[in-house]
Amino acid sequence: MPSRMNITTFGALLILLLSVPSASAQIIHDMIDAEVAFGPVTTASLGKMQAVSRQSDRVQVPFTGVAAEIGSTADMINVEIRFSADEGASWTSWEAAHVTASPSGGTFLAGLYRDDLINASHYEIRVLTESQAVTVIRESGVFNGLRDVDTNPPEGLVVRKGKSTGDIIPPPLITRSDWGAAAFKGGSPSPLTTGAFRYMTFHHAAGWSATTRAEGIAAVRAIQDFHQNGRGWSDIGYQFLIDRGGRLYQGRPFLDGSTSLDQVPALALGAHVGGVNTGNIGVSILGCYHPPDGSQCSEQITPEALQTYVTLFAFLSERYEIEPELIRGHRDFSPTACPGDNNYVLLPQVRADVTELLINGNAPIGSAAITTADVKEGSVHLSWDVLDTGSLSSILIERSIGRSTTIVAELDPTSGTYVDAMAPADVEIAYTIVGLSTDGRRQELASTIVNVDTPLRFTLTDAWPNPTTGASTFRYYTPHDGFVRIHLYDATGREVRLLQDRFLDGGSWHTTSLQVDDLPGGVYFYRMTVEGFSGTVFDKTHQLIVR
Asked: What is the pTM of this model?
């Protein structure tokens, strides 16, 4: 019968084998040029340490380095790699690999690189841990750093800043200084482009999920550590990164010392898409978004992160002159799952949202605030203050119910009031003040949510518009059956028009539209009476001004 320790060890091993590998396998895939299969696992005791080893199959491509992903229950591991140039007949001495631990624990990346090609047909990876740890060498592969853009930047690169003005306000930036970046290695960063900017590329980190600022900083530091010291790049590969809370982090250094996107910095060449880095701005979302790789890689992008993506892409599109149609996923350039199925499917909508934001901008065209939103006798009474007219030419009042939106009024851009006599009952209604600018832009200025309850008694609403010059509308609610008469009187009390004279069933709203363009200007009154079995059960009068 297995011992308690054996059962515990088996459970930990099962978790490492089945759960976590899927979450981060793509991290290695995006670091290597070729995946290399392994032979069987060898385990040996070295005093108080345990050694878990695997030998590679034959390596079929030239390479300068090796990267591996390792799962372990140990808090710390040491990784060593050795090489054989004669099909495993003899081996070099063990060399220490650089190890980067996932901030969330359980996963380690190991990398070893040289400046020149490694003369080897096979390699072996050995992981040293405390004896009680459960360790799995999950995946490994090789890369050729001599082909990296950091090693051989294209000719003709020029420093180019974006346009200094525009209508898109960029997201706030957590700079390299803010997150404690290590220095750029190997001289100075290269400019991003030879002239024109070409693409904006959507990535996911295939792990390193982070929601808070502290988690984001830890994840970005870890990614930079492995990119520099395990993969051999000069710096973190991306120009920008986004956490699940929507925070934006600077990746590669800016060439001109800028400390915010408001300064429209000169961007540096990155290392995020093999062979297509020139003129290509890489933005990576922390986390893993590719469900085929397992439950640990099934995250959905948050609304906050998606909004940051759209705003950043719109800013980059406007200032660096990259059309929204040139937003790409990493897999559009390379045989990779990145940015994950859950993100890749969003790209058409991202392009559409960026296009719309470019049209309307997010630099304010004015400002307004809704001061009251009251329900009175079945009508919604709104009032608002226009705080800054800016470049406003007019404002719209929009009523939204579910996915249906109706423009209920277009008004001058001044403080004012509006009565919505047509608001339906027993649903949530959103009212939005939308500003239209003199240059054709459209922005939401203020919004509020209102619920109109079905009345418990007979109700006659105010007319709208009031005053009026052509037509006005009012509604009335009949909770019970009754004979309804509505008369229109002038200021002397003379009946001008009979608007309703019939029996109506209870439990319904009714609407009357009154044409007044044939009436002389002045004060009028519309009166509603309801006759029931016991006599008059409702009698109400409202004023209407005709101009």
From this structure: 0.75
